[in-house]
């Protein structure tokens, strides 16, 4: 009985790892569209078509529930997919809402009107496609009022992480934080709006300073998923768990094993 987790590449492994720790009895089928990564530099129509095809592939493999563990896909494709309708008994969910609920100190599933919150100045670090979509700001507006969000498109970071060049990724992160702080010198909180970025969380924190609370998604999404499955146990599908990629399985296996520090074997889709 597997839950599907989709990402354009390996960043979603940060969500998968947290979900496996929180829900050890649940099987997960991870799908990395490595052949088309990164999504963050693609246009919205391209992202939508790629995401829809991948999600359909997970549904076809017996996953009733698919988590888009990719902020770019969540920003550019999720709402459109939901509005177009999904097959009966299937669901697709994104990763923005648990993060925003934590930021605004709302309970999971709280649908009360937006209200003022303590955090007023928020830095958002995300891919160019996520930033241009303004999806984070739209979802935040449903839950909070009066929050100033300054977004920084972090070009090159995902590519460096996917290539295993963490020295370059670290340098890029520091440069993007410097650029953000020129626009918002004193953010109260920072959102790591890409599931690759938790791998660089320490670098973000050091560059921002100890007074800035940094939010990343793994544990938050895992807790939200646990709550959802408790309320909707029928969403546990019939398929088996595992790891799939549209890229070269050997290369993706090596990189994933490096990320998770345990053998993680990918198969071709």
Describe it.
This protein has 269 residues and is an alpha/beta fold. The chain folds into two domains: 2-96 and 218-268, Rossmann fold, CATH 3.40.50; 105-215, 3-Layer(aba) Sandwich (Rossmann fold). It is built from eleven helices and twelve strands. The strands form three sheets. The chain has a six-stranded parallel beta sheet, sandwiched between helices. Strand 9, helix 9 (201-208) and strand 10 form a beta-alpha-beta unit. Helix 1 crosses helix 10 (218-231), helix 2 crosses helix 3 (71-84) and helix 8 (166-183) runs parallel beside helix 9. The longest helix is centred in the middle third of the chain and has 18 residues, at 166-183.
State the helical fraction. 40-55%
Instruction: Detail the poorly predicted runs.
Output: none
The count of β-strands is 12
Output the number of helix runs: 11
Strands across the major sheet, in which order? 4-3-1-2-11-12
Describe the oligomeric state of these chains in a short phrase: single chain
Kindly state the mean pLDDT as a whole number?
A: 93
CATH class of the largest domain: Alpha Beta
- Overall 3D form: globular
CATH architecture of the largest domain: 3-Layer(aba) Sandwich
CATH topology term of the largest domain: Rossmann fold
Indicate the proportion of strand residues.
15-25%
**H/E topology pattern:** EHEHEHEHEEHHEEHHEHEHEHE
What class, by secondary structure content?
alpha/beta
Please tell me how large the radius of gyration is.
Answer: 17 Å
């Amino acid at each position: 009985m597997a839950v599907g987790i989709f990402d354009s590449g390996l960043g979603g492994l940060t969500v998968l790892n947290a979900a496996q720790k929180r829900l050890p009895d649940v099987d997960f089928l991870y799908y990395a569209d490595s052949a088309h990564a990164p999504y963050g530099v693609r246009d919205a129509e391209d992202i939508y078509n790629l995401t829809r095809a991948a999600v359909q592939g997970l549904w076809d493999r017996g996953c009733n529930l698919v988590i888009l563990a990719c902020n770019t896909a969540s920003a550019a494709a999720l709402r459109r997919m939901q509005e177009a309708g999904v097959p009966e008994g299937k669901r697709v969910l994104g990763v923005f809402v648990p993060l925003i609920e934590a930021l605004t100190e709302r309970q999971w599933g709280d649908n009360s009107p937006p209200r003022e919150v303590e955090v007023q100045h928020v830095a958002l670090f995300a891919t160019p496609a996520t930033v241009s979509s303004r999806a984070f700001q739209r979802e935040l507006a449903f839950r909070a009022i009066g929050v100033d969000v300054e977004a920084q498109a972090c070009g090159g970071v995902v590519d460096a992480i996917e290539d295993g060049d963490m020295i370059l990724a670290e340098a890029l992160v520091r440069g993007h934080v410097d650029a953000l702080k020129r626009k918002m010198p004193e953010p109260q909180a920072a959102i790591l709006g890409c599931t690759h970025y938790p791998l660089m969380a320490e670098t973000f924190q050091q560059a921002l300073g100890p007074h800035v609370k940094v939010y990343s998604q793994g544990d938050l999404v895992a807790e939200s998923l646990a709550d959802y499955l408790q309320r909707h146990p029928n969403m546990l599908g019939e398929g088996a768990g595992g790891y799939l990629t549209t890229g070269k399985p050997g290369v993706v296996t090596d990189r994933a094993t490096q990320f998770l520090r345990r053998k993680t074997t990918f198969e071709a889709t």
